[in-house]
Amino acid sequence: MSLALADVTLTYPDGDARLTALDRVSLRVPAGTTTAVIGPSGSGKSSLLAVAATLITPDSGTVLVAGTDTAGLGRAGTTALRREKIGIVFQQPNLIASLTAAEQLQVIAHLAGGSRRAGRTRAAELLAAVGLTGQADRRPHQLSGGQRQRVNIARALMNDPAVLLVDEPTSALDHERGAAIVELVTDLTRQRGTATVLVTHDREHLHRVDAVAEMIDGRLRLPTPERRAAFLGDPHPA
């Protein structure tokens, strides 16, 4: 399973004209790999995630999620596809204050129509996978920022998605906790076979991902070995 975008163009109204957010963007992310998307604010990174998540329909181009062409699915079809095949890790965890860490996950299983027993079992397994076995009964205010982000990641994996979309997971964390979160995402990607897109401003962690793509003015490009080495601070690219 993988994520594939081909010649995707997305525009927004801008007065009497149209503003191009994505300009013939193509990207393929194989299962079990993480691609980081970097670029300045306003370059189109958020629009790319929104299109990949089926939250926005592009003007043109093709979006394939785990082999399914999203064109023509309609609102009900895209909602079902997101629920079954796509996990989204938002920049802010947005956890429900009254629910424990385990309950944050269990409600996702409930919304998908799963049994309570299966939801409890799955939640416990995922909390263990993100290192939070001992925090299952804690509510958000009892967790650190890094722990809340781990719950956020576990929640996105609750329905065993084929595609994982991660938006700036380190923005509110210090360097050490940020590194741990990126390492966790890449490790889980390999273990669970997801096709993961990681949008980030933090270039210090790019050595952990499988591929890097750079978004500039709505266009996505793969950096040359020299440019990627510059991102990583390596003066001697392979």
From TrEMBL:
One of its GO terms (molecular function) is ATP hydrolysis activity. Gene3D superfamilies: P-loop containing nucleotide triphosphate hydrolases (3.40.50.300). InterPro entries: AAA+_ATPase (IPR003593), ABC_transporter-like_ATP-bd (IPR003439), ABC_transporter-like_CS (IPR017871), ABC_transpr_LolD-like (IPR015854), MacB-like_ATP-bd (IPR017911), P-loop_NTPase (IPR027417). Residues 3-232 form the ABC transporter domain. Keywords: ATP-binding, Nucleotide-binding, Transport. Pfam families: ABC_tran. One of its GO terms (cellular component) is plasma membrane. It comes from the Bacteria. CDD domains: ABC_MJ0796_LolCDE_FtsE (cd03255). SMART domains: AAA. This is Putative ABC transport system ATP-binding protein. It comes from Micromonospora echinofusca. The lineage of its organism: Bacteria, Bacillati, Actinomycetota, Actinomycetes, Micromonosporales.
